[in-house]
Write a structure and sequence with these properties.
This is Circularly permuted ATP-grasp type 2 domain-containing protein. The protein is α+β, with helices and mostly antiparallel strands. The chain has 14 helices and 25 strands. The protein has a 4-stranded parallel sheet. Strands 19-20-23-24 form a 4-stranded antiparallel sheet. The chain has a 3-stranded mixed sheet with strand order 3-25-7.
Length: 482
């Protein structure tokens, strides 16, 4: 161990540590990083932190926290110690994600067409058809190329033995990729020498790959289909990302008021007049897309958009109704979904999951709330969740009532102590923080995964919640070739 890390307590007996093995020895793919950090003084680290803070501030890299009185916009928390993933481990993750996304897309096509998986009783029909995000009005609609999930961010964790597990899928409007890209730029400014010592796979081409994927699903054949990004506006928590990606792709950032539907075709208002829109990368949830079809009070969408979509005159990424496949209840059936459509065993396993809608499972959950993690089926951002070991009796009783009242809306899982990674606290203390990984998958004519993803880190000591809205931050993620 280098002197800079001498105070770090890995505790490998309790948690899988990404850097230190159970024998207390640094893992080989971290040797160069530990050696380099061992050459730094505390002042060196503070200087590099200042470089990163200035970069983030100048770039406007922020996120929004709702319900905070002192202000809603904050600089995204960033930890200076990068996560290193060796190429052989990344290969497993990549293969597993391609398998998973392929099967989930087949599932979506099936339930919006023949519903064969329901007729074969692989999944109870009431769980799918009763899902909050199942859209009956889109049964029989064919999205371009038959693809529903063009952009996916599946969350991956490691258990106590270091096995990679899929924690959940984000198939509607997954966020965070802009932070992945900006984290890399910040690290290059702060630690340029490290990039000379490692063969780190690049991620900078993500915006171009995203644009290519979006253009591939255009229903109109022309050399450069017109793509726009549809944002809810500046008060959305991910607005920085919306504007950043539009700028990086060289496309228009639009709000609902900027678009108009005429004769079942979508146009954007410009200083040159109306321009036809072929593809909308929408960061607006289904319910707010079109006040004529969904919520009539929505000011975020475009009146007539859904009819234009039904007529095949515009493509939406991701497709309407894709959220049924990232319902946490459906998640529990994903091994069966992979086996059913692909005839293969899952490469990446899931976390064991209990469903309160099953009487035996409900009994077990209610008897073990103090040890389980309970999640609402369609919440995100760390909301709607009970972490049993950290909860009070009153909180457990409250969740018990909610589960019994609406068992379809919840799942329960064992408390998995996520892997840990050394992180800085106040640029002086270094301690183990729990992390996960969100790789980003693009699905057009082919499936593309940029090597890495967003490593989210729980910067509150001992916390298992990595979401930025709950005190989490992020790290740069390096996929390295030896």
């Amino acid at each position: 161990m280098t002197r800079f890390f001498e105070s770090y307590e890995a505790d490998p007996a309790r948690f899988f540590d990404e850097v230190i093995s159970k024998e207390g020895i640094p893992r080989q793919h971290y040797d160069k990083l530990l050696h380099r950090f061992g050459q730094f003084s505390l002042d060196d680290i503070k200087a590099r932190r200042q470089i990163v803070n200035i970069f983030f501030r100048n770039q406007g890299i922020t996120f929004t926290v709702y319900g905070v009185e002192e202000g809603i916009e904050r600089i995204f928390p960033f930890d200076l110690i990068p996560r290193v993933v060796p190429a052989n481990e990344w290969q497993t993750i990549e293969k597993g994600l391609i398998q998973r996304i392929t099967a989930l897309n087949a599932f979506l096509h099936d339930i919006y067409h023949g519903q064969k998986i329901l007729k074969d009783k692989v999944i109870p029909a009431e769980l799918v058809l009763g899902s909050k995000h199942f859209r009956r009005e889109f049964v029989g609609i064919n999205p371009p190329l038959g693809i529903y999930i063009h952009v996916t961010g599946s969350d991956i964790i490691r258990d106590g033995e270091g096995n990679y597990l899929v924690l959940e899928d984000n198939l509607r409007t997954p966020s965070g990729v802009s932070y992945m890209l900006q984290n890399r730029q910040a690290m290059k400014r702060a630690f340029p020498v490290l990039f000379e010592k490692y063969k780190i796979r690049p991620i900078e081409n993500y915006p171009q790959e995203l644009l290519r994927t979006l253009q591939e699903i255009s229903p109109v054949r022309r050399n450069e289909p017109n793509v726009v990004v549809l944002t809810p506006g500046i008060y959305n928590s991910a607005y920085f990302e919306h504007s950043f990606l539009a700028r990086q792709m060289g496309v228009e950032l639009t709000e609902g008021k900027d678009l108009v539907v005429n004769n079942n075709k979508v146009y954007t208002r410009t200083t040159r007049g109306l321009e036809r829109v072929d593809v909308i990368y929408r960061r607006v949830d289904d319910d707010y897309l079109d006040p004529l079809v969904f919520r009539p009070d929505s000011k975020l969408g475009v009146a007539g958009l859904i009819n234009a979509y039904r007529k095949g005159n515009v493509a939406l990424a991701n497709a309407i109704g894709a959220g049924v496949a990232d319902d946490k209840v459906i998640y529990s059936f994903t091994p069966d979904i992979i086996k059913y459509y692909l005839g293969e065993d899952p490469i990446l396993q899931i976390v064991p999951t209990w469903l309160p809608s099953k009487p035996a499972h409900l009994k077990y959950i209610l008897e073990n709330l103090d040890t389980l993690v309970v999640k609402a089926a369609n919440e995100s951002g760390g909301y709607g969740m009970l972490i049993g070991p950290e909860s009070t009796v009153a909180e457990q009783e409250k969740f018990a009532e909610m589960i019994v009242a609406n068992p379809r809306n919840y799942i329960a899982q064992p408390t998995i102590s996520l892997s840990r990674h050394p992180s800085f606290f106040n640029d002086s203390d270094i301690f183990g923080c729990h992390i996960d990984l969100r790789p980003y998958v693009l699905y057009g004519k082919t499936v593309t995964i940029v090597p890495g993803g967003l490593t989210r880190v729980a910067l509150k000591r001992g916390s298992l919640v990595v979401n930025s809205s709950q005190g989490g931050g992020s790290k740069d993620t390096w996929v390295v070739d030896e």
